[in-house]
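User: Quick sanity check before I run a bigger batch. Here is a single chain. Can you write out its predicted 3D structure?
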Amino acid sequence: MTLPALILFPLGLVLGSFVTAVAHRVPRGESWVAGRSQCPSCKAEIAAYDNVPLLSWLVLGGRCRRCRAPISARYPLTELGLALLYVATYLLLGTDSLAELALGLIFCTLLAAITLTDLERRVIPNQIVLAGSVAALAIVLFADPSSLAERAIAALAAGGVLFVVVMAYPRGMGMGDAKLAGVMGLYLGAAVAPAILIGLLAGSVLGAALLARHGSAARKMAIPFGPFLALGGVVALWFGEAIVNWYAGRFG
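Assistant: Done. Predicted structure follows.
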């Protein structure tokens, strides 16, 4: 493994810890910049030596040092997951364009935060979507302003398509999903098309599986769609350009 990958792995662990804090605090209206991390059960502040990404959870056996209440595995899993996403993004995108690599790493961070909030609270916070949009626009305007028009069109198209779906089937999706699709267009450009299709397909497969298992009762189950969009976004980040080129060459 190359030196950049060895650097990105611990960086992903650290930012994964940050993502869990953001995902926990923002939907609850709490500040994500001020205040120390606390045990969800006893509210005791977590000391720095107990807040080392991944390692502290393993050493403590997944429990609070003070009250011994279990601490969700989503914390170390998010940290490890983002670290692996960072390394994979670097290995697949390379460093020919540092701007594209930066966009990819920020995109993975954004998707991780949104996946957590949607799974836990069934919400995609506007603050996170807005921050992701500003970051994408800042990098594109600085490093690749010529691509801004394509990305803007992709954002409007992707967000518009899901907006129509939300209007037609409000029980299946929310406005947060449409906003997320729009932000994905800023990061992915034309590759947002396969991202949306992959997300819809993955969501449909799970929906069909639930219907087969639970029958009509499955229609009342709330399934967050953000994680499926995130899955499509990661696949499109890594392979979207190749998918678009393949499609254009075969059917264009």
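Residues 97-252 form one domain.

User: Great, the batch can go ahead then.
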